[in-house]
Amino acid sequence: MSNSNPPLITHIYTADPSAHVFNNKLYIYPSHDRETDIQFNDNGDQYDMADYHVFSMDSISGPVTDHGVVLGLSGVPWASKQLWAPDAATKNGKYYLYLPARDHDGIFRIGVAVADKPEGPFTAQKSYIAGSYSIDPASFVDDDGKAYLYFGGIWGGQLQYGPQEPSGENVVALHPRVAQLTDDMLGFATPVQELVILDEAGGSPLKADDHERRFFEASWMHKYNGTYYFSYSTGDTHYIAYATGESPLGPFRYRGRILEPVLGWTTHHSIVEFGGRWWIFYHDCELSKGVSHLRSVKVREIGYDDQGDIYLVD
C-alpha cells in the first residue's frame, strides 16, 4: 500500500488528517507530530503535539499548500499540553476548529477555536466546551443545518473510568460519544450520549473483548446516498472500521473494514467527497521509517458498491 502512495506532506510530520471541502478547495486539518525524548507508553505521552497547521489542495494530485501555524498551545488558555487530533466545520460563514487537549488538571477536554477563513488563523475560546471530555472530536453538519460533535478514545483518551477498558464475557464495549452542537457551534445543545454500534445483524451492541470490531478512537461521520456512515479506529488491532445508520445519533450497524493496519501504532482517518470522487485520508510512519509517533498524511480513493459497502479503489 505504502510504496505506490507517497506522503502528501514531507517537510513536517502530520497525523490524524481531517479533510473537508470548503469553497471548492480541499483543506486538511491534521495534528502536528514532533520529535521528543518522552518514552513510549499506553497513555500516549510521546504524542506531545503543541500546534496546528492547515493545509490546502486545489486537486488531489496537485501541490499541497502549508498555511503555517494557525493555533498554538499558548493560544489555548484552558490547555496545558497535547494538542491532539482536531477537526473543522463551517456554519454561519465562520470556520470552527475542534481540538482536544489536557486541561490544567491533566484531564482531556475538547475546545473550539473560530476563524473567518478556512485556513485560519483560529482564535480559541477561553474555556473548553462545557460537558466535554476525552479526545478525537469529529464535527458533522447535516443537510438540515443541525451540527453534531462525535468524540472519544480509550486508554490514553480517558473515555473509560479507571486505567483499563472493560473486559469480560458479554461485557458491552465502550461506545463513542455524540452531542448536538448549539447553533453558534460553540457548545453542546443536548446532553452527551452514547453512539451505539450494533453487530452486523443489528441485534446486540459490540462487546468489549471484540477488539477487531469495537470502537477505540478516531470517530468520523459522513453521509452517502442518505445513509450515515460512522467510521473509527479499532485501536490496538489497527483497523479502520465502519458502521451505518439512519440517524446521525444512531444506532449504527457494523459493516466491515475500510483500511487494514498501516506501518506504525496508530491509525486515524477522514472521508470526504472531492472532485466527484470519494477519498480516505489517513497516516502511516513510512516517512519516519516506522517511528510510531512521527507520522505522515496520505490519501487513497474509495468507492461504494450496490449495497453501499465501501471498498478501496486500486
Describe the fold and architecture.
The protein has 314 residues and is mainly β. It has one domain (15-312): Glycosyl hydrolase domain, family 43 (Tachylectin-2, Chain A). The protein is 0% helix and 43% strand. It has no helices and 22 strands. Strands 5, 6, 7, 8 and 9 form a 5-stranded antiparallel beta sheet that branches. Strands 14-18-17-16-15 form a 5-stranded mixed beta sheet, with no helix packed on it. A 4-stranded antiparallel beta sheet has the order 1-2-3-4, with no helix packed on it. It is globular, with a radius of gyration of 18 Å. This is Alpha-N-arabinofuranosidase. The record marks 136 as: Important for catalytic activity, responsible for pKa modulation of the active site Glu and correct orientation of both the proton donor and substrate.
Question: Which CATH class applies here?
Answer: Mainly Beta
Number of helices: 0
CATH topology: Tachylectin-2, Chain A
Question: What is the string of SSEs from the N terminus onward?
Answer: EEEEEEEEEEEEEEEEEEEEEE
Fraction in helix: under 10%
Task: Please report the distance between the alpha carbons of the first and last residues.
Answer: 10 Å
Give the beta-strand count: 22
Mean pLDDT: 94
Radius of gyration of CA atoms, rounded to a whole number: 18 Å
Largest sheet: 5 strands, antiparallel
User: What structural class do helix, strand and pairing data support?
Assistant: mainly beta
CATH architecture: 5 Propeller
CATH homologous superfamily designation: Glycosyl hydrolase domain, family 43
Q: How many domains would you count in the coordinates?
A: 1
- β-strand percent reads 35-45%
List the uncertain runs: none
Which overall shape is indicated by the principal axes computed on the Cα atoms?
A: globular
